[in-house]
Amino acid sequence: MGSTDNAISYASALVLALFLLPLLHEAEGCDMFTGRWVEDASYPLYDPSTCPFIRREFACKRNGRPDLSYPTFRWQPKGCKLARFNGVKFLEKNKGKKIMFVGDSLSLNQWQSLTCMLHSSVPNSPYNITTQGSITTFRFQEYGVELKLDRNVYLVDIVREKIGRVLKLDSINDGHNWSEMDTLIFNTWHWWNRRGPSQPWDYIQVGSKVTKDMDRVAAFETALGTWGKWVDTVVDTQKTKVFFQGISPSHYKGALWGEPRAKSCAKQKEPLLGTSYPGGLPAEVGVLKRALRKISKPVTLLDITMLSLLRKDGHPSIYGLGGRTGNDCSHWCLSGVPDTWNEILYNYMA
């Protein structure tokens, strides 16, 4: 009898282990950011025409993009499988909660993606969109879920003073906008190299030192350090989950993906199907990771750079805001790559 009981016990334990293994692997051992893009007939997760609120710069299909295979690729991590996004489960789990994206137009891109993923899951559920100051709120009224966007491109402050507009690398006064949130997703990078008329500041300040300019990567790292100190000092991570979106790449140099004659993402119709990018990761990714390691409290990096680098086909190009006079290889079509960022976010939040 003893050996039989042991056999039954072993069999039961084995069944339980096999049941739990995918859950443990997903939560503890899954590298969601190393993998490849595979075609999947069940994608995209939504038809963008069902979301009238998608802004023109992301509405590639509405703007006349003729090739429509780009949304049909699914991200497949190397050693595990992402749980498919379920909008109803997301809304039920986050009932009454506030989720905020803070950053530049790439945050807008991801925020718009998530609002459409959710709206298409509950198309008859009422919603409203309101804007107050720099903050736009998309509220699912039935669930009391608020998806907020704070357009803050540097995370640190720009202050108008007698000498002009000063970018203060060691000051965050807008942090009061980010309090009382249940989830925060931050992002900054794309504006750090802006110069000329599109640069929204005249001077840059660290401590008491004011200069006309400085090394932009060093400024980026200093600002990340200020933001990290803000997280450690202000955020109660027992109540608020903190994520950083990662560095979203652009595609303007074909030599970086093995097409030296390509000067942009124009006419790109399929992703790179391998697991690595010939041009490697941009240097700012290392800067970001170094800054995140200095933060004591838990901050989860959505390390979306490599998977996005592989998607040279995913940008609006001439089917964005500027039409044929523009060529946007920085933002992303919706539906498209940001939906995968949000599927990964969903897997972390599940």
Across the major sheet, the strand order is 4-5-6-3-9-12-13
Number of E-state strands: 13
Query: Which whole number gives the mean pLDDT?
Result: 92
| Alpha-carbon distance between the two ends | 43 Å
Radius of gyration of CA atoms, rounded to a whole number: 22 Å
Name the helix and strand elements from N-terminus to C-terminus, one letter apiece: HEEHEHEEEEEEEEHEHEHH
- Uncertain runs are 1-27
The share of residues in helices is 25-40%
Amount of beta strand: 15-25%
* Anisotropy-based shape: globular
Q: How would a textbook summarize the main sheet?
A: 7 strands, mixed
Question: Total number of helical segments?
Answer: 7
Q: How would you classify the helix and strand content by structural class?
A: alpha/beta
Characterize the structure shown.
Keywords: Membrane, Signal, Signal-anchor, Transmembrane, Transmembrane helix. It is a single-pass membrane protein. This is Trichome birefringence-like N-terminal domain-containing protein. InterPro entries: TBL, TBL_C, TBL_N. The chain is an alpha/beta fold and 350 residues long. The protein has seven helices and 13 strands. The chain has a seven-stranded mixed β-sheet with strand order 4-5-6-3-9-12-13, covered by helices on one side.
In short:
With 350 residues, the chain is α/β, with parallel strands linked by helices.
Index terms:
alpha/beta, disordered N terminus, 7 helices
Question: SSE layout and pairings?
Answer:
Blueprint: H1 2-29, E1 35-39, E2 73-77, H2 87-93, E3 98-103, H3 105-121, E4 127-132, E5 135-140, E6 145-151, E7 157-161, E8 164-168, E9 183-186, E10 203-206, E11 209-211, H4 216-234, E12 241-244, H5 283-293, E13 300-301, H6 305-309, H7 337-349
Parallel strand pairs: 3-6, 3-9, 8-10, 9-12, 12-13
Antiparallel strand pairs: 1-2, 4-5, 5-6, 7-8, 10-11
